[in-house]
Amino acid sequence: MATVMAEAGASNKGLAKRIREVAQQHGDRVGTTHVAVQRWLDGSGIQRQTAMYVAEALSTKLRRTITPQDLGLPGAVQTSPPPSGTRYASSLPEALNVLDSLTRQCPEDGGSAELQLPEADIHSAALVWLVSRPEGAPSDNPGTRRVGMRDVAAIRAAAGFFMQMDFQFGGGHAHKAFRHYFREDVLPLLGADYSAKVGEALFKAASEMSQLLAWSAYDIGNHALADRYLLSTLRLTQVTGDRMMGSRILTNLSHQANYLGQATRALMLARASVEGGKADSTPRAMALFCAHEARALATVRDRKGAARAMSEAERYFERAGSAADPDWLAYMGEAELNGEFCHCFRDLGYGPEAVRFAERAVALTDPRYARTLGFCRMVLAQSQLLNGDLEAAVATAGLAVEAGDALRSARFHRYVDDFRREVSVHATHPLVQRFNERVQAAMNRLNDE
């Protein structure tokens, strides 16, 4: 492989970029980076489909046929879905073993939605969680390290730091640090010695960190890995009966399914989150859960259902200050609610309403939430295009690309790609041509980092 790369004049970064482009041409998305290329050069295994993309990329460059075997990749065999995390764990030790296994997987080596968990497994997990009872954190681990509230505070501080990194720079920037911290500094504490009070706080903090791992894997584009993290995190919430965090996990699964066009799955999960969270969630959390039910209903063009769910979200949000919210819910403000609603109106085809809510979301979103701001700007651009305002749409999308060119987020890139496809009917228009040039320049800057 090194010899062929040298002949082709391909650097690790250059080859990684070509692999991503080849995968996209095949309707696939991979998160391959120069780091993954170096691992393959060092002898690490590679998935069969990715190896085919490598060979095709180098074949195109050299203008002759290159096979995976020519590259010294005989181990590029078809891999089945990882055995870890394929079902809802029946015990806490099983869940912790799965999480340890997942933290040893590199999300940039995959990205195909084909390895997602089957819908039946997700339905089963949601049902088991909905009817579960709190187990209580195990506290009979004598002879091990004694965990205190300071340890819990450290985990929560780290979760807040990682969450802000994810919002500001995208999941691709910090997932490696996430998983290393979780494996080395969080998982060992769950099997240590602690009081019942500390144990409950510890498991809640661990769930916060675990769901961040899931979210960043989703943002990178590895949906199979994200599914497994989310399923394992859902199991963690069962330990202490943390229904609010469990409902958030179901909402995350719904968000992911909706993004992937799996409308039935998204709607089932959103409704499970609403029903599961009703008894023990704050009004702010319920507003979030209802907003995602609205998102799923909008995807299936259920106008009446989406309007009802948005109204419920608004009613809950009006009481958002009446209860103490967990720190992880701090991002759910008026800007976030408007952002969810503008997605709904866009998907329902209501251009004027989509523009109004998108403009409000953009105006209210703190620049620290760079990825969210990027999404809202792209939805605003799509909504302006829906209204027939090409000039405003291209200007808005151009601003989103310029401001978001440092985001390592497959989801943001997908928003940009979707807009480029929608505006391609005006491909010969000078505004559109200049926009495409700006996108290509931004991608080149990102690939050169």
Summarize this entry quickly.
The chain is mainly α and 449 residues long. The chain has 20 helices and no strands.
Could you walk me through the main structural features you see in this protein, from its secondary elements to its overall organization?
The protein has 449 residues and is an all-alpha fold. The chain folds into 4 domains: 61 residues, no CATH class; 156 residues, no CATH class; 84 residues, no CATH class; 113 residues. Helices cover 69% and strands 0% of the residues. It contains 20 helices and no strands. Helix 12 runs antiparallel to helix 13 and helix 15 runs antiparallel to helix 16. It is globular, with a radius of gyration of 22 Å. About 2% of the residues have low confidence.
Helix content: 55-70%
**Computed structural class:** mainly alpha
Secondary structure tally, helices: 20
What is the overall shape? globular
Strand content: under 5%
**How many domains make up the 3D coordinates?**
4
Major sheet details: none
Radius of gyration (Å):
22 Å
Number of strands: 0
Q: Which regions have little confidence, pLDDT < 50, spanning 5+ residues?
A: 75-83
Average pLDDT over all residues: 88
Task: List the helices and strands in order.
Answer: HHHHHHHHHHHHHHHHHHHH
- Taking the alpha carbons of the first and last residues, their distance comes to 23 Å
Could you outline the blueprint of secondary structure elements for this entry?
Layout: H1 2-8, H2 12-25, H3 34-41, H4 48-62, H5 92-102, H6 119-130, H7 149-169, H8 171-190, H9 196-220, H10 223-240, H11 243-259, H12 263-277, H13 283-299, H14 303-317, H15 334-348, H16 351-364, H17 370-386, H18 390-403, H19 410-423, H20 430-448
